Each structure stands twice: as structure tokens, then as C-alpha cells.
What does this fold into?
Amino acid sequence: MPAMKPRLGLMLQLFFFIVLPLAVLLLVVSFGSVLVHQGEMRRMVGERDVLAVRAAAEALRSEIGRREDAVRALAERRDSPETFLAESTLARNQFDRGLALVDRFGHVLAQTQWSSLLPEPAPISRSVSTADLRLSAVSDANGRPAALASAWTADGEQAVIGAFALDPLFEGTSRGILPNNPFMRIAIVDEDRHVLYAAPADAFEGSLQDHVGVSQALAGQSGAVYVGTGSSEHVMSFAPVGGWALLMEEPWQQVVSPLLNTSQVGPLVMAPLLLLMVVALWFGARQIIQPLQQLEAQAVKLASGAVAPMTPVVGGIDEIRRLQNALLAMAQQLQAAQASLHHYIGAITAAQEDERLRLARDLHDVTLQSLIALKQRLQLAAPGAKDAAHQTALDEMQQLADATILDLRRTMRALRPIYLDDLGLVPALEMLAREAEQLGLAVEFKCEGHIMRLGPTSELALYRIAQEALNNVQRHAHATLANLALHFSEERVQLVISDNGLGFTPPSNPGAFAAQGHFGLLGMRERADLIAAMLEIHSAPGRGTTVRVSLPLPAPSSSTPSD
It folds into this structure.
């Protein structure tokens, strides 16, 4: 039986050509939509932060501008320190750290509620430009940021300095405008890139010399950039606040609404669906595909001539079980038909052998005896020949009688080998090899093991198989040498006939013997089946042919000694 070629099963075809492409398509669409959604949300968060930072920066500039206007107004209306002290009362709510009046040499002429946490205003005033109003940042004794707004009088002899804390200013303006996000970081940076204000306090520590967005904001630009930080991406928005920079940084993924974040879980729903499809395919493979494959293997064996019971039960769905029951019923019918055929062939073979035996006896008892008597008459008539012509005719008749007797005896041995019944299988096979050599085929006979007599039916079947095999070698193989071997062992007797002839391609199953015209092989197979022997035929074009017959021997019965 030829090996079955591997092929892609129905379940695998469904998986690879339908389920898997659909799953991949759905995953691509789902993840693609998530990526598009994330890109849009990223852009929207960036735009929102830019608008918020610009609005907060504008609010800060407005508040700082009010304080600058107040200082400028005090510088314009100042007549004396007493006037300064009287007029500064109106501006004290804007300068919670105090107001001071200094001369051009840095001497403090007057001050109101100047915070003890701040340095003296005189040293600070020396850094104040006389050309224009200037906003400067300082730190108090606690490290908290403060700002100084200064303006010179018209004559340039005196300057008004107002100090105010930055934290309340930033908290009261920008914090009400900027989004409320626990992951957000806010900072205000001066022109030296020092952090004046940060929320939370440790959000930006140290110099921001190379921080993204600082240079653009200090240059008067506003916008947003995206910065990768580990496994997340932050949006950094910036805007100018006078000579300072307002920065806001937050992870944009955290800004997105949790409801919108659930859309990212959408593709993950495909995972259990795909798992469910795999489970369904596994169930189909176990209940449909695998039982069908087992049933197919049993059907192939049935087609090859093996009509043994179809076991085991393949199981599966109800339709497959009914199909197996139908095949089982058919196999039982074939087995019964084959058994009947074997009995019929056995009866025909036995009748054929009986007819051959009867014919061989008739030829021996009648025809052969008549030929022998005729030969004796010719021998008696030879001395009375009158001349040489008559003598020659009588000699030719004697030679023809001898040849006819020889052919008749060969035919009788072919019909029923006399050595088989009297001497056994081994002498009969040895005589068969000698007769084949007389016909021009070199045959080497070999016998191994302990020689024993078999039953008459078994010996006759093995002899006929060897006879048919040698006849095929003589007629078809064009061989120069044949080997005939008989091996006896405790378990079996093995008969092997091989040759170095042309060889052929043997049929895949016994049912094809007759269809291809191998009637001799079919007869050999039937004789082997009648004695429960196994017949194997190995051949290939150009490699000769080997016929092997293996006959199991019954186990020796143990005899109990009698008392």
C-alpha cells in the first residue's frame, strides 16, 4: 500500500484561509483605529495645553503689568519721602513684601513694610537700570521666589522699588487657568534659566539651560513639543511672560478621558475571540477531522484487501459514527464474501489437485505402460529387420518412444510430484530445481535448519508456489540465475525464490493482480492464503524479483507422561 501523501486538512484550511486572515484584518483595523485615535488625542492635548499656557501667561503679564504701572505712578508723583509714604498706602496690597524709595547712590530714603526676609533694598537698587522700568527676581531667606518692580523718577535722582512674592501671584492667576491634572508640572523660569516657581516644588530643580522649550519662550515664542520619557511621552507647552518663560509639562496619555482610553482595550477583545475560534477549531479537529482521518485510514486498508474488523471506534459526531457503522457492516460483508471465496477456491484447488492426481495415475497406468510395451515390441522386432532401412526405421521409432516416455513422465511429475508424497517437500523442491536446469535456467537450491515434514496441504501449496515462481522466471524474467531457498525454524518455515531478471512493478494490492494479467501471482497468493501463510513480492524494474512465503508453525504441544 503506498504511503499517503501529507496534505492540508479541512480544519487547517479553514484556519489559514478564513479565520486567520479575518482575525489579522480585524486586528489591523482595530490597532490602526487606536493609533489614529491616539494621534488625534495627542494633537488635541498639545493644542489644549498651548492655549492654556498662553492664557496663563497673558494673565501673569497682566498682573505684573499692574504692579509695574503702580511703581511707575509712584515714581512720577513722588515729591518727598513723606509724600512717598502717604501715596504708597494705596499700592501696598499689590506689594506684599514692601515698598522702598532709594536715591541714586543706593541710600534708602523711605520704606514701608519691607520684609525682613528680603535683602536690604539699597544693594538691590544698584542693579536697577536707570533707563527704564525693570522687573527683577530675588529669593527670600526661606528660598521662596520674590520679584522687584522698580522705576526711576523723572530727574533720575531717586527710584521706587516694590517687592512682591511670586507664589501667591502665580497661584492666584495661572493655577485657575491651567488644567487641574495631578501629573502636570508647571514652572516659571527667568532669563538666567533659574526656576522662579514650580508646582510641585521639586518638579524642576537646578538650571534649565538645555530644557526643551525654554529658549523658544525666552525668545518670545509659544508652542508645544513632545518629549519621550521612558515608556511614556510628555507634551511640553511654553509661552513668554515678559522676560520670563512659563512651562507646563504633562503626560498626554493621562490627560485623555478614561472613557476614551477604553477604546484602546478594543483590540484586546480580539484575543479572547481568537482564542475562542482556536478552541472551536480544536473541538472540530477532535470531533470531526481526526475521526474522519482515522476512518479514511481504515477505508484505505479495506480498499487494499484487509477486511479485518475496523477497530478502534473513531468516535466523533453522530454522523461519523453512523458512517463507521456502515463501513463496518460493509467490511463484515466483504469478510464473509472473502471467506466464502476462500472456501470456494480451496474446494476448486482440491478438486484440481485430485483431478491432476487421477490424470497422473491414468497416464502412469495406461498411457505410460502402453508406451513401454510399444518400446519393448520395437526392441523385439529390431533383430528381424531385413535390411538397413528397416533397421533405421525401427531405431527411430525406439528413440521417439523414449522421448515420449520422458515427456510423459515430466508431465506426470508436473501434474503430481511423486517425490512430494513419498519423500517430502525438500526432495521435491530439489528435483524441481534440477528440472528447471534441464530447461536452461541455472537454479541454486539451498535448505537450512532442521528439516521436518509438514502437512500434505502445506507441502503441496509451497511446492506449487515454488513451481509457479520458477515458471514465471523462465517465461518472463529473462534471468540467468535463480535461487531457491527453504529455511526451517522453530516458529516458521520460509520459502524464498529470487532471480536476477528484468523485474517488474508489483501491484499495490491483490485485487489488481487479475486486472493487470498477473494470474500466476494471484494463484500464488490464493494458495498462500489457504494455508494461512504470508506471501511477499518484492520487485523493481531492472532489479530482479524476490518471492518470500512465510508459514507459521503451530507451537509444540506438551505431552503429559502416563503412569
